[in-house]
Amino acid sequence: MVLQHIWGLFSHPKEEWVSIRDNPCSVTICYTRHVLILAAIPAISGFIGTTMIGWDLTGREPVKLTMGSAGFISLLTYIAMLVGVYSIGYMVHWMGKTYGAHKPLSQCVMLAAYTATPLFIIGVMTLYPLLWLNMILGLPALAYTVFLLYTGLPIMMGISEDRGFLFSSAVLAVGLVTLVALLAITAILWGSGLGPMLST
User: Fold this and answer.
1) How far is CA 40 from CA 32, 64, 93, 147, 152, in A?
2) How is the chain split into domains, by residue range?
């Protein structure tokens, strides 16, 4: 069933991770049944929010983007999320050898995909792009994502909780470095004239 594990990840995460582990799927199926759908939530919400409502940055009139600019940014955001899930899954697969966890790539991608679920879902907040509200709602989602990583990795990779803690910390570090690199690339692109176009 499409998106069948979402409720379980919020209501009983440990048991749900066991269910996810015991019902493996290929990378393609994982993407078509989960990632492609959920990653569209922040991309579409961001498009609507930035073109119809606008960012309220200063308490004055909201800043809106042109349809073309918002569409391009939303598409890049969507692609970045799809690539990000696969990249983290690949890194988990590659790093697994260090921690004695030899699992197939598909299982590592599943771990990355389901761990990112809270971030995908909270992306709906960008329908109303108010910076302080997005921060208040986004931080708990980020914290729960980290919780899912630390809870799910030992189960999915079949290792002890102690070793899983170290492994999860390494994955989290890789994720943070990737995020910083992505922000740096974004700043460089915006500085070279590829930034968002404001609606007049």
Assistant:
1) 12, 20, 25, 23, 24
2) 6-194
